[in-house]
Amino acid sequence: MKKSELTLIGKIFEKGGNAFLQTTPGKLFALFVNSLVSLFDDNRNLRTDLRNVMMQTFFTGVEVFPVLFIVATLFGSVVIVEVISIMSKMGFGSVVGSVLSAVIIRELGPIFTAFLIAGRSGSALTTMIGGMQINSEIDALSSMGVNPVRFLVMPALFGGSIAVFMMNIWFSVCAIGGGFLVGKGAVLFAGQVMNVQFTWDFLFSSILQALSVTDFIMLVIKPLVFGSIIVLNACYQGFCVKRDIRNLPKATSRSVIYSFLYIVIADAFFAALYLVEYLGELNKII
Amino acid sequence: MNALRIENMNFSLNEVVSLDKIKKNFSYRMTHLEKSGKNKVLVERSILENVNFQLGLGETMCIGGPSGQGKSLLLRILAGLEAPNSGNLYYFGEHIPREKHTALQIASRQVGMVFQNGALISNLSVRNNVALPLRYHKRGTEAEIAERVNMALDLMRVREEEDKFPFMLSIGMQKRVAIARAWVMDPRLLLMDEPTAGLDNYNRRNLLPLIDNMRTLFKTSIIIVTHDLMMAQELGCKICFLENRTLTEPHYFDYWLHSKELFAQQFFRDLRNRGENI
């Protein structure tokens, strides 16, 4: 359709769309669409793709496994001990599960996992792609007819998202499991002060009862979105390095900082979705 | 049919320059000037102007000239890594419009490029570097790919290094692996950026027959950007100079050696000063 044939709404969409694509989020979105489209190009090879995605999953997730275990266990311990002590003092021992599910599984678990992976794997990805830019390796790929988005971004996108999803579950398990053990010790130590029932059955069942269907959906969607943000931002910052090595450290720090920023913004968006759900439930009650 | 034909090609770069620098340096040939902040202007600086060029099938051509004139840039344009501002480019008789002038499009016309630094993928071994384009473009089964890779590694005499990573190789070996990687895709047109730069005489002497083999055995058309014009003489190919933003007519080494053109005289004087026996 020619420009002159566009309706007013069409023109607004065209201008708005073009303006959006000039911004960094717009470029990240374009990179996302490009990497999805590249899945269907003529050179698709399921076996190679699966191998690359698995390698990326390993690179992004498994190598952050031990750090995540320590952070999750300590974090879970702190949160569970704090929640138990405060709630028991206020006489709300029965809502411990709800608070823990909201804090660990719903909010801070995905955020912590995403932050750790952005700091470790996102920065590594930016450095790798930036180094390839400086070394003309990206140009070499293009000149061989190898699409850099398909070769580098697509496997990282899928591998990274799967890794964040898996690591998020691992984080929650470690935080609740490790937190339970430390919390149990705290209750035994200060049993007289804390007036709260604290057994594994109680903790596990109260957390499960507190989880809604939306929580389970978010348990899948949030890490996938966060993983995509980390990988796309890391790749984009790497591609921006061009051929100047002075840009590499700047790009790496931008990769981490902007990943944090975008993750928090996305999380705020998800929180808004929870609010909408909550308001809907409130309407039903009224 | 030509392997490559360029008609009236122009290329310019956008740069933000301070006004003072422009006042001091009148050599800027600006096609567009726009205010961009305090004391800064956006300059569209012309790099290549009215470039015309033809390369026959199976022909080899060297492009020489002083540093910073845009020789490597010209090669990048030919490989599709940069798009020209205007002009027509024909690869094997097919016109490539500006919107299709991308590296992926041009690579699909069997155009290969060897970069000055080799540009080997650093986290892949030599064998996997050479096999990469074959695997990506699904050129046969794994056994066929292995056979082709072996042939390329043997041809470039780097078979013994197949399990090494690029950082373990000398510059000369990296260049040979890069040529093997480009050759393995059976290019009809090969663009080489300074293939002999940084090589000692021994490696240089080894590299030239390899380039010659590609030309004579496989009928590959080759464009070589180089300062090493003795190579052009040894390969017996014509030389173009990139001078004053455009390409000169191609001539053999001896023509340029006795040419009255100032840039050619200057060039050969520099060669003699470097100790070349001309």
Task: Give the topology.
The complex is a heterodimer of chains A (286) and B (278).
Chain A: H1 8-22, H2 24-37, H3 46-60, H4 65-90, H5 96-134, H6 137-143, H7 148-189, H8 200-210, H9 213-239, H10 247-285
Helix pairs in contact in A: 1-2, 2-7, 2-9, 3-7, 4-5, 4-7, 5-7, 5-8, 5-9, 5-10, 7-9, 9-10
Chain B: E1 2-18, H1 19-24, E2 30-35, E3 40-56, E4 60-64, H2 71-78, E5 86-91, E6 94-96, H3 103-107, E7 111-114, H4 126-136, H5 142-155, H6 171-183, E8 189-193, H7 201-218, E9 221-225, H8 229-235, E10 238-243, E11 246-247, H9 253-257, H10 262-273
Parallel strand pairs in B: 4-9, 4-10, 7-8, 8-9
Antiparallel strand pairs in B: 1-3, 1-5, 2-3, 5-6, 10-11
Helix pairs in contact in B: 4-5, 4-6, 5-6
Please outline what is shown here.
With 286 residues, chain A is mainly α.
In percent, how helical is the residue content of chain B? 25-40%
Mass-distribution shape of chain A? globular
Q: Which regions of chain A are unreliable across 5 or more consecutive residues at pLDDT < 50?
A: none
**How many strands, what sense, and barrel or not for the largest sheet of chain A?**
none
Strand content of chain A: under 5%
Overall structural domain count of chain A: 1
Portion of residues within helices of chain A: over 70%
In percent, how much strand structure appears in the residues of chain B? 25-35%
Q: Let me know the average pLDDT of chain A.
A: 85
How does this structure look, described?
The complex is a heterodimer of chains A (286) and B (278). Chain A has 286 residues and is mainly α. Chain A has one domain. Chain A is built from ten helices and no strands. In chain A, helix 1 packs across helix 2 (24-37), helix 7 (148-189) packs across helix 9 (213-239) and helix 9 runs antiparallel to helix 10. The longest helix of chain A has 42 residues, at 148-189. The N and C termini of chain A lie far apart (50 Å). With 278 residues, chain B is an alpha/beta fold. Chain B has a domain at 2-8 and 50-110 and 187-273: Rossmann fold (3-Layer(aba) Sandwich), CATH 3.40.50.300. In chain B, a hairpin with a 2-residue loop joins strand 5 (86-91) and strand 6 (94-96). In chain B, helix 4 (126-136) packs parallel to helix 6 and helix 5 (142-155) crosses helix 6 (171-183). The radius of gyration of chain B is 20 Å and the shape is globular. The A-B interface holds A 43, 45, 48, 128, 131-132, 135-137, 139-147, 151 and B 76, 79-81, 102-104, 106-108, 111-113, 115, 117, 119-123, 132-133, 135-138, 178, 181-182, 185.
